[in-house]
Amino acid sequence: MDNSKRIPRHIAIILDGNGRWAKLRNKPRSYGHKVGFDNIKAISIYASKLGVEALSLFCFSTENWNRPKEEVNYLMSLPIKFEKDIDAYLKENIKVMVSGRKDRIPIKTLNSLNNLQEKTSKSTGMILNICFDYGALDDLCKAVNSIVDSGNNNIGEMAIYSHLSTSILPKVDLLIRTGGEMRLSNFLLLESAYAELYFVKTYWPDFKEKDLDLAIDEYQLRNRRFGGIKE
Protein backbone atom coordinates (compact mmCIF):
# COMPACT_ATOMS: atom_id res chain seq x y z
CA MET A 1 0.00 0.00 0.00
CA ASP A 2 1.24 3.48 -0.92
CA ASN A 3 0.60 5.79 2.03
CA SER A 4 1.43 8.76 -0.19
CA LYS A 5 -1.75 8.08 -2.17
CA ARG A 6 -5.21 8.87 -0.89
CA ILE A 7 -6.34 7.01 2.23
CA PRO A 8 -10.12 6.53 2.51
CA ARG A 9 -11.57 9.02 4.96
CA HIS A 10 -14.33 6.61 5.98
CA ILE A 11 -14.06 2.83 5.78
CA ALA A 12 -17.06 0.62 6.58
CA ILE A 13 -16.71 -3.12 7.16
CA ILE A 14 -19.38 -5.84 7.29
CA LEU A 15 -17.86 -8.33 9.74
CA ASP A 16 -19.06 -11.54 8.13
CA GLY A 17 -18.02 -15.18 8.40
CA ASN A 18 -17.48 -15.69 12.13
CA GLY A 19 -19.79 -18.71 12.34
CA ARG A 20 -18.44 -20.37 9.21
CA TRP A 21 -14.88 -19.77 10.40
CA ALA A 22 -15.70 -21.59 13.65
CA LYS A 23 -17.47 -24.43 11.86
CA LEU A 24 -14.36 -25.14 9.77
CA ARG A 25 -12.52 -25.65 13.06
CA ASN A 26 -15.25 -27.83 14.58
CA LYS A 27 -15.98 -25.10 17.10
CA PRO A 28 -19.33 -23.57 18.12
CA ARG A 29 -20.44 -20.40 16.35
CA SER A 30 -19.95 -18.48 19.60
CA TYR A 31 -16.22 -19.20 19.41
CA GLY A 32 -16.10 -17.56 15.98
CA HIS A 33 -17.94 -14.52 17.31
CA LYS A 34 -15.48 -14.26 20.22
CA VAL A 35 -12.42 -14.40 17.96
CA GLY A 36 -14.07 -12.00 15.55
CA PHE A 37 -14.79 -9.60 18.39
CA ASP A 38 -11.17 -9.75 19.52
CA ASN A 39 -10.12 -8.74 15.99
CA ILE A 40 -11.94 -5.41 16.23
CA LYS A 41 -9.33 -3.69 18.40
CA ALA A 42 -6.35 -4.63 16.20
CA ILE A 43 -7.99 -3.55 12.95
CA SER A 44 -9.33 -0.34 14.52
CA ILE A 45 -5.94 0.69 15.87
CA TYR A 46 -4.26 -0.12 12.56
CA ALA A 47 -6.82 1.90 10.60
CA SER A 48 -6.24 4.81 12.96
CA LYS A 49 -2.48 4.66 12.40
CA LEU A 50 -3.06 4.73 8.63
CA GLY A 51 -4.89 8.04 8.96
CA VAL A 52 -8.45 6.82 8.42
CA GLU A 53 -10.85 9.39 9.87
CA ALA A 54 -13.80 7.06 10.53
CA LEU A 55 -14.21 3.30 10.71
CA SER A 56 -17.74 1.87 10.84
CA LEU A 57 -18.12 -1.78 11.83
CA PHE A 58 -21.34 -3.74 11.33
CA CYS A 59 -21.44 -5.78 14.54
CA PHE A 60 -25.15 -6.62 14.91
CA SER A 61 -27.96 -5.83 12.49
CA THR A 62 -31.64 -5.19 13.09
CA GLU A 63 -32.23 -8.51 11.29
CA ASN A 64 -29.82 -10.51 13.46
CA TRP A 65 -32.55 -10.83 16.10
CA ASN A 66 -33.91 -13.60 13.85
CA ARG A 67 -30.98 -15.85 14.76
CA PRO A 68 -31.30 -18.58 17.43
CA LYS A 69 -31.87 -17.13 20.90
CA GLU A 70 -28.71 -18.65 22.33
CA GLU A 71 -26.58 -17.01 19.63
CA VAL A 72 -28.32 -13.66 20.04
CA ASN A 73 -27.76 -13.75 23.80
CA TYR A 74 -24.07 -14.41 23.26
CA LEU A 75 -23.77 -11.59 20.72
CA MET A 76 -25.47 -9.27 23.20
CA SER A 77 -22.82 -10.11 25.78
CA LEU A 78 -19.85 -9.24 23.58
CA PRO A 79 -19.98 -5.41 23.86
CA ILE A 80 -19.51 -5.77 27.60
CA LYS A 81 -15.97 -6.94 26.78
CA PHE A 82 -15.28 -3.60 25.06
CA GLU A 83 -14.57 -2.06 28.43
CA LYS A 84 -11.28 -3.93 28.71
CA ASP A 85 -10.14 -2.12 25.55
CA ILE A 86 -10.92 1.42 26.69
CA ASP A 87 -7.33 2.20 27.69
CA ALA A 88 -6.07 1.01 24.29
CA TYR A 89 -8.52 3.28 22.47
CA LEU A 90 -7.64 6.21 24.70
CA LYS A 91 -3.92 5.66 24.04
CA GLU A 92 -4.57 5.79 20.30
CA ASN A 93 -6.85 8.86 20.66
CA ILE A 94 -9.77 6.91 19.16
CA LYS A 95 -13.28 8.20 19.78
CA VAL A 96 -16.04 5.60 19.91
CA MET A 97 -19.62 6.22 18.84
CA VAL A 98 -22.50 3.77 18.57
CA SER A 99 -25.09 3.74 15.79
CA GLY A 100 -28.30 1.76 16.05
CA ARG A 101 -31.35 1.22 18.21
CA LYS A 102 -31.02 1.43 21.97
CA ASP A 103 -34.46 0.21 23.04
CA ARG A 104 -33.94 -3.54 22.56
CA ILE A 105 -30.42 -3.98 23.92
CA PRO A 106 -30.04 -5.49 27.43
CA ILE A 107 -29.29 -2.78 29.99
CA LYS A 108 -25.88 -4.20 30.91
CA THR A 109 -24.84 -4.19 27.27
CA LEU A 110 -26.20 -0.69 26.73
CA ASN A 111 -24.36 0.59 29.81
CA SER A 112 -21.09 -0.81 28.47
CA LEU A 113 -21.59 0.84 25.09
CA ASN A 114 -22.52 4.14 26.73
CA ASN A 115 -19.49 3.93 29.02
CA LEU A 116 -17.20 3.32 26.05
CA GLN A 117 -18.60 6.41 24.30
CA GLU A 118 -18.35 8.55 27.42
CA LYS A 119 -14.79 7.53 28.31
CA THR A 120 -13.51 8.25 24.78
CA SER A 121 -15.66 11.32 24.10
CA LYS A 122 -12.74 13.77 24.36
CA SER A 123 -10.54 11.85 21.93
CA THR A 124 -9.84 13.76 18.73
CA GLY A 125 -8.49 11.04 16.44
CA MET A 126 -10.28 8.42 14.37
CA ILE A 127 -13.95 7.79 15.11
CA LEU A 128 -14.77 4.12 15.62
CA ASN A 129 -18.46 3.72 14.83
CA ILE A 130 -19.88 0.54 16.37
CA CYS A 131 -23.07 -0.31 14.47
CA PHE A 132 -25.08 -2.40 16.90
CA ASP A 133 -28.74 -3.29 16.39
CA TYR A 134 -28.30 -1.11 13.32
CA GLY A 135 -30.21 -1.13 10.03
CA ALA A 136 -30.00 1.55 7.37
CA LEU A 137 -33.73 1.49 6.68
CA ASP A 138 -34.55 1.78 10.38
CA ASP A 139 -32.14 4.73 10.65
CA LEU A 140 -33.73 6.37 7.59
CA CYS A 141 -37.23 5.99 9.05
CA LYS A 142 -36.11 7.60 12.30
CA ALA A 143 -34.48 10.45 10.39
CA VAL A 144 -37.62 11.18 8.35
CA ASN A 145 -39.88 10.99 11.42
CA SER A 146 -37.55 13.36 13.26
CA ILE A 147 -37.75 15.86 10.41
CA VAL A 148 -41.55 15.62 10.30
CA ASP A 149 -41.80 16.01 14.09
CA SER A 150 -39.71 19.18 13.86
CA GLY A 151 -42.31 20.69 11.53
CA ASN A 152 -39.97 20.82 8.56
CA ASN A 153 -41.91 19.95 5.41
CA ASN A 154 -38.87 20.24 3.17
CA ILE A 155 -37.51 16.69 3.40
CA GLY A 156 -34.50 17.11 1.16
CA GLU A 157 -31.22 15.24 0.89
CA MET A 158 -29.31 17.47 3.29
CA ALA A 159 -32.09 17.33 5.88
CA ILE A 160 -32.13 13.54 5.79
CA TYR A 161 -28.37 13.20 6.07
CA SER A 162 -28.26 15.62 8.99
CA HIS A 163 -30.74 13.45 10.93
CA LEU A 164 -29.02 10.11 10.38
CA SER A 165 -27.14 8.58 13.31
CA THR A 166 -23.97 8.91 11.22
CA SER A 167 -24.42 12.60 10.45
CA ILE A 168 -21.08 13.61 11.99
CA LEU A 169 -19.13 11.18 9.79
CA PRO A 170 -17.87 11.64 6.23
CA LYS A 171 -19.65 9.66 3.52
CA VAL A 172 -18.29 6.12 3.15
CA ASP A 173 -15.38 5.91 0.71
CA LEU A 174 -14.64 2.19 0.95
CA LEU A 175 -17.06 -0.53 2.02
CA ILE A 176 -15.54 -3.96 2.73
CA ARG A 177 -17.45 -7.18 3.27
CA THR A 178 -15.59 -10.22 4.53
CA GLY A 179 -16.77 -13.82 4.26
CA GLY A 180 -17.40 -14.11 0.52
CA GLU A 181 -20.98 -12.82 0.35
CA MET A 182 -21.65 -9.96 -2.08
CA ARG A 183 -24.47 -7.83 -0.71
CA LEU A 184 -24.85 -4.77 1.53
CA SER A 185 -27.34 -6.29 3.99
CA ASN A 186 -29.00 -3.01 4.95
CA PHE A 187 -25.73 -1.38 6.05
CA LEU A 188 -25.11 2.37 5.62
CA LEU A 189 -27.06 2.43 2.36
CA LEU A 190 -27.31 6.21 1.94
CA GLU A 191 -23.84 6.88 3.31
CA SER A 192 -22.41 4.36 0.83
CA ALA A 193 -24.16 5.74 -2.25
CA TYR A 194 -20.80 6.34 -3.94
CA ALA A 195 -18.60 4.04 -1.89
CA GLU A 196 -16.13 1.72 -3.57
CA LEU A 197 -17.21 -1.85 -2.80
CA TYR A 198 -14.69 -4.54 -1.93
CA PHE A 199 -15.72 -8.15 -1.29
CA VAL A 200 -13.23 -10.66 0.06
CA LYS A 201 -13.61 -14.37 0.82
CA THR A 202 -11.50 -14.11 3.97
CA TYR A 203 -13.62 -14.64 7.08
CA TRP A 204 -13.57 -11.77 9.57
CA PRO A 205 -11.54 -13.60 12.28
CA ASP A 206 -8.76 -14.06 9.68
CA PHE A 207 -8.96 -10.49 8.32
CA LYS A 208 -5.70 -8.86 9.41
CA GLU A 209 -3.75 -5.67 8.79
CA LYS A 210 -2.36 -6.99 5.50
CA ASP A 211 -5.90 -7.64 4.28
CA LEU A 212 -6.88 -4.07 5.03
CA ASP A 213 -3.80 -2.94 3.11
CA LEU A 214 -4.95 -4.99 0.10
CA ALA A 215 -8.42 -3.43 0.26
CA ILE A 216 -6.92 0.06 0.34
CA ASP A 217 -4.56 -0.88 -2.52
CA GLU A 218 -7.61 -1.74 -4.61
CA TYR A 219 -9.38 1.46 -3.53
CA GLN A 220 -6.38 3.53 -4.64
CA LEU A 221 -6.64 2.00 -8.12
CA ARG A 222 -10.31 2.92 -8.54
CA ASN A 223 -11.30 5.90 -10.69
CA ARG A 224 -13.89 7.66 -8.56
CA ARG A 225 -16.03 9.78 -10.87
CA PHE A 226 -19.15 10.40 -8.72
CA GLY A 227 -21.34 10.38 -11.82
CA GLY A 228 -19.02 12.65 -13.81
CA ILE A 229 -16.15 12.02 -16.19
CA LYS A 230 -12.46 12.10 -15.36
CA GLU A 231 -9.85 11.85 -18.07
Distance between the termini: 24 Å
Count of all domains: 1
Q: Which secondary-structure class do the elements indicate? A: alpha/beta
Q: Mind describing the biggest β-sheet?
A: 6 strands, parallel
Oligomeric grouping of the chains = single chain
Shape: globular
CATH architectural grouping: 3-Layer(aba) Sandwich
Walk me through what this model shows.
By secondary structure, the chain is α/β, with parallel strands linked by helices. The protein has a single domain (10-135, 172-221), classed as Decaprenyl diphosphate synthase-like (Undecaprenyl pyrophosphate synthetase, 3-Layer(aba) Sandwich), CATH 3.40.1180. The chain has eight helices and six strands; from the N terminus they run βααβααβαβααββα. Strands 3-4-2-1-5-6 form a six-stranded parallel β-sheet, with helices on both faces. The longest helix is centred in the first third of the chain and has 22 residues, at 29-50. The mean pLDDT is 94.
